[in-house]
Design brief:
single chain, alpha+beta, Ribosomal Protein S5, domain 2, Alpha-Beta Plaits, six-stranded mixed sheet, four-stranded antiparallel sheet, 43% helix, globular, binds alpha-D-galactopyranose
Amino acid sequence: MKDFLTQEFTKIFNKNPENTYFSPGRVNLIGEHIDYNGGLVMPCAVTFGTYLLVSPNSDGMFRFRSMNFEEKLDIPVQGNYTKTKEYWFNYPLGIIEYFLKDGHPVLGMDLLFYGNIPISSGLSSSASIEVVTAFALNDQLNSGYSKLDLVKLSQAVENNFIGVNCGIMDQFAVAFGEKNKALMLNCDTLDYKAVDSNLGEHILAIINTNKPRKLAESKYNERVQECQAALKALQHELEINNLCDIDTATFNKYSHLITDATIYKRAKHVIEENDRVKLAAVALSNNDLAEFGRLMYASHDSLRDLYEVSGKELDTIAEYSKTDANVAGARMTGAGFGGCGIALVKESAFEDFQKNMIAYYTNKIGYAPSVYSSLIGDGVGELLAESEKTKA
Ligand code: GLA
């Protein structure tokens, strides 16, 4: 991969890249719509993601090129950038804007991006491109940010430059992910543990609905506001900073404070889902995949009925999975409104699962999903050639 990308870079810029970086995408095993409510999530990095090849230049220009999109941008290093339409280069441009705003000296660079995360699939292609750019700039410019600083900066870009009020989970997962580990992340304190993802004889399947995501961003921001309204109502009697500061039992005692039926449903999902993550962590450490799977299905049902971010495509994925004895559990992952589902499937039965899922889904929805088996990979870093790795 690296050699192929290097050749492309050379063709475009007539010189060799100095460095190549990679940031993965992520899936979330459980704990959905929790991060912006200060609770627990369990994401992991996947092995596909965004590659970035960089060479500094001496003419004070940023040149953005992508192997996935035709649009390109040449722009002087001066800052005060703003978002242009929905172009892909808004993400790296936002990152550079934040480096400049923080007062870091920034030099011109030639940048080539290549991503193999399906776009709009809910696997965090945006966090991946943000974090890879932030990591690369920090390395090239010796800006002295910690990895956590880069995560926070990337989230700020998504919130303020792109305009999606996301939590910190995606940027955190793609930066801190570890091979064969799931991250148990407390989104309030940002304490985390990388725990073994003991899937036993199961593997992680990703099922892309291939449904174009429309209105996802405005619906997402609407859910964030609904949670804020629920928190405000509960704060009349409870001293809490986040919805996830209380458990289900406490919620049941105080839920009368929320008078709006929709807001009540949103809060109920969040608080029960946070409790499910705690149970899922215990199940994973006991190698109890049956319990883990049960919690995944319960999470899906709650996202469908209480949080209302699923849809017939994602529901069909969970529905088929329930009929397949080789599946321990399944659910939608990420923000919802399309995107991907995940399932824990017996490795020996993966091909049957793939075939049957495609047939079932196509029959119901009218077009096929894409079904992949996925490995859990490492977070952001510089991509070294094999020879460089042995030198280090
Ligand atoms: C998107 C957001 C995350 C998180 C998930 C839902 O992926 O970017 O911050 O809120 O949705 O869990």
